[in-house]
Design a protein that fits this description.
Helices cover 34% and strands 18% of the residues. The chain is α+β, with helices and mostly antiparallel strands and 141 residues long. A hairpin with a 3-residue loop joins strand 1 and strand 2. It binds guanosine-5'-monophosphate.
């Protein structure tokens, strides 16, 4: 059975998309630890991230880097933090989080309730910046 992330990628389940290419999809986490909390997923469904073939792993991280760049450009934060867990959804993914301190990476914190219009706005800002960077500044990658 397709994972919930494969169903999101297929458009069967709605998501707040922030970036996409032919092999990857990035969208806002539905239970964000912080505003802008993003999941970056390979379209090729593999459970454990470190089981990805070497080239697919490298491509996933290169795509995550571009998403992180767009996030950093539009979200007020010091850094974009990176985490990999995969304990809940058996489809490899990278968490990207706008952070200002170590404590912002706390996944035990109470999840933020962010209104739908704000989620939509955050996703649109990251999406537009990602697209702008792709077309205007390909050299930065
Ligand atoms: P992990 O597998 O890395 O432990 O956690 C999975 C993450 O996916 C969680 O942060 C959870 O909130 C998120 N998640 C689970 N189901 C959905 C969903 O249907 N939509 C979105 N946008 N995020 C989800």
């Amino acid at each position: 059975m397709a994972s919930i992330f494969s169903r999101i990628i297929a458009g069967e389940i709605p998501s707040y998309k922030v970036a996409e290419d032919d092999k990857h999809y990035a969208f806002l986490d539905i239970n964000p630890v912080a505003p802008g909390h993003t999941l970056v997923v390979p379209k090729h469904e593999v459970d454990y991230i470190f089981d990805l073939p070497q080239d697919e792993y490298a491509e996933l991280m290169a795509f995550a880097k571009k998403v992180a760049k767009a996030m950093k450009d539009v979200m007020p934060c010091k850094r974009i933090g990176v985490a990999v867990m995969g304990l809940e959804v058996p489809h490899a993914h990278v968490h990207l989080l706008p952070i200002n301190s170590e404590s912002d990476m706390n996944f035990f914190t109470e999840k933020k309730q962010i209104p739908a219009d704000e989620m939509k706005d955050i996703a649109a800002r990251i999406f537009n910046k990602f697209e702008e960077n792709e077309t205007s500044h390909p050299e930065i990658f």
